[in-house]
Specification:
The complex is a heterodimer of chains A (about 400) and B (about 180). Chain A has 14 helices and no strands. Chain A has one domain. Chain A has about 400 residues and is mostly helical. The model of chain A has no long low-confidence stretch (mean pLDDT about 90). Chain B has about 180 residues and is α+β, with helices and mostly antiparallel strands. Chain B has 2 domains: about 90 residues, Alpha-Beta Plaits, CATH 3.30.70; about 70 residues, no CATH class. Chain B has 5 helices and 4 strands; from the N terminus they run βαβαααβαβ. In chain B, about 15% of the residues are buried. Classes of the chains: A mainly alpha (about 400), B alpha+beta (about 180). The interface between A and B is small, with 9 and 10 residues.
């Protein structure tokens, strides 16, 4: 085992180009959202885009906390030196949660989101708009319970995300095994809660946009999407930090592990996507096929692009061992996967929430996405710059520094 | 020429064994193989072992499975005996995929188990090829071909110097039971 002399107090400085660019991106985002709100016909589409990006933002951040918990529960050694990156993502979760809840609340209030189950007279048998299916589901799909669930679930995720980063902070100050064993314990609890609640979170946030349709695969399908996009984000941040001269202890074995994760969970995503598709295709029941009918008729290009970006690209480019170990290839694939999951969410959300004719792909979509990417970059890099880039008292740190595959 | 076939250096510690490998290599003595009870990081690079071609084999086993599954379903349900299932066309590719997927995995698994048996000579019923039984327990063994290297006492000396607990001169290659 080689010796090493890394600077364990190294700290990220958030200045210069990264800061300027992320602020510019936020301004572009705000401008295009404002543009979306100037035209009354575009309100629905703007809200759908806001929901898409806020959901994406929250999912990437909470999967950062999930990554932390998985590493603690598995007692993984390889990742000990890169844990500060998912921690920074976890610390950004409260911001993402506030945004998501505000957007959902505003969308419900102005009837721009979830109008499929939240509208005048849907549950009133004497109303001309009476919808028997929605009425049957109204015990679950009503505004107070819906918002309550969101607040509780996201609140719990935030609590554990902040708790895990706080424990890591204590570990830096005090040393010893105390924080590690506590992290292990809270991670176990978090994983159980997370596993049972993320499907419901996905049902609420995305599936209820088309409240007549349902799929029990949908929760895991979304879980796979959020997990793989979070892993890709992590890989991008780590590789860019390395290119900027930070985190020199990250070697190509760490990249190999991240690449394996991205490869494996891209295939898992495809597996779940395909299971959902094939069961509906095979059974051919009208109440289920309506979902794919819409996507296949009006979003055919996106439907296939989704598979190309999220399945073919990672499979073909990351299957080879040497490719996983090369930072430029991993960086490229991670960016493609992130764009791919935007496309994935796009064709989950748009057909159900935007009327045909006002939908499309233009300034609002690109601008909102750029704005949220800027906000994410700004807040995560800001959180990252608050602490040293390595948890110097992590008990498994040596294993990570000597990681070799 | 003696009838000693292999010289085995038996080490109690992996680091000492790695040191022994270095010593032998410095003196240009070719190492036949090394046997350890557990995997050791970086030993492949040190011994100059070529990268395994297992992945290529796995790929071809898998693709055979995919093609076989496709051929099976296509010939039975499209060419030979068309059935009307839910009004779908006979050649409904999404329905084929689960079977193609499963057969890919099955063929890969069988192919790799077979190649494992072939490369380790571990067919059921055959005695395993072992040079030193303790390599399966607590010792780290370096084996040097005695026929290729003449200076036996020098090899013994080098192994002892590196920390070998015991140096054996085997007259048989394997102490198996065949």
């Amino acid at each position: 085992m080689g010796t090493h002399n890394y600077n364990l107090t190294e700290q990220f400085e958030f200045t210069g180009k990264a800061k300027t660019l992320s602020i510019v991106a936020i301004v572009i985002g705000i401008a295009s959202i404002a543009y979306g709100f100037t035209d009354h016909g575009l309100h629905e589409r703007t809200f759908a885009n806001l929901l898409l990006m806020a959901y994406y933002f929250a999912c990437v951040c909470m999967s950062g906390a999930f990554f932390l918990a998985v590493q603690f529960v598995a007692q993984a050694g390889w990742s000990a030196s890169i844990l500060r990156v998912p921690q920074a993502m976890a610390k950004t979760l409260p911001l993402a949660v506030v945004l998501l809840i505000v957007i959902m609340g505003a969308g419900l209030y102005t009837h721009n989101l979830y109008h499929h189950w939240h509208a005048e007279g849907l549950t009133d048998p004497n109303s001309p708009h009476y919808d028997k299916l929605i009425d049957g589901k109204s015990a679950f799909l009503n505004v107070p319970f819906f918002m309550g669930r969101q607040v509780i679930f996201l609140g719990i995720y935030c609590f554990f995300a902040l708790l895990l980063s706080k424990l890591s902070n204590n570990e830096d100050l005090e040393g010893g095994l105390n924080s590690y064993t506590k992290s292990f314990k809270y991670s176990c609890i978090f994983l159980v809660i997370y596993g049972f609640t993320t499907p419901i979170f996905a049902f609420d946030t995305v599936m209820s946009l088309e409240a007549h349709w349902f799929s029990t695969m949908f929760g895991w399908y979304n879980f796979a999407a959020m997990w793989v996009s979070s892993l890709a984000t992590m890989a991008i941040i780590i590789i860019l930090l390395r290119k900027a001269g930070y985190m020199q202890w990250v070697n190509n074995s760490h990249l190999h592990n991240l690449g394996q994760f991205i490869f494996g969970f891209s295939i898992f995503w495809t597996y779940v996507w395909f299971c959902q598709f094939m069961l509906i295709y095979y059974a051919n029941m009208p109440e289920e096929t309506v979902y794919f009918y819409k996507r296949f008729e009006f979003y055919k290009f996106w439907f296939f692009l989704n598979l190309v970006l999220n399945f073919l690209t990672p499979v073909l480019l990351l299957m080879d061992r040497d490719n996983k170990r090369q930072e430029n290839i991993l960086l490229g694939v991670s960016i493609v996967v992130l764009c791919g999951h935007w496309v994935d969410y796009y064709q989950m959300i748009m057909p159900g929430s935007v009327e045909e004719g006002t939908n499309g792909f233009g300034i609002i979509e690109i601008g909102t996405a750029i704005g949220f990417v800027g906000l994410f970059t700004f807040s995560v890099l800001n959180a990252l710059s608050k602490k040293p880039l390595i948890a110097k008292n992590h008990p498994l740190l040596q294993e990570s520094l000597n990681h070799h595959l | 020429m003696s009838n000693i076939k292999y010289i085995l250096g038996s080490f109690g510690d992996p680091d000492e064994m790695m040191h022994g490998i270095e010593k032998l290599q410095e003196n240009n003595i070719k190492i036949h193989d090394v046997y350890t009870p557990m995997p050791i990081h970086g030993i492949e690079a040190k011994l100059g072992i070529k990268r395994s071609r297992l992945d290529i084999l796995a790929f071809f086993c898998g693709i055979t499975g995919t093609v076989s599954a496709f051929a099976l379903i296509y010939l039975t349900s499209v060419v030979d005996w068309r059935n009307n299932i839910g009004g779908k066309p006979s050649f409904a590719l999404p329905d084929f995929i689960p079977i193609m997927f499963e057969l890919t995995i099955l063929f890969t698994a069988f192919g790799l188990v077979g190649s494992y048996y072939a490369s380790t000579h571990l067919f059921p019923g055959r005695a395993p090829r072992v040079m030193d039984l303790r390599a399966t327990d607590d010792r780290f063994i370096i084996a040097v071909d005695a026929q290729e290297n003449a200076e036996h006492s020098k090899i013994d000396g080098l192994l002892k110097e590196a920390g070998a607990i015991e140096v054996k001169h085997n007259e048989r290659k394997y102490i198996s039971y065949e």
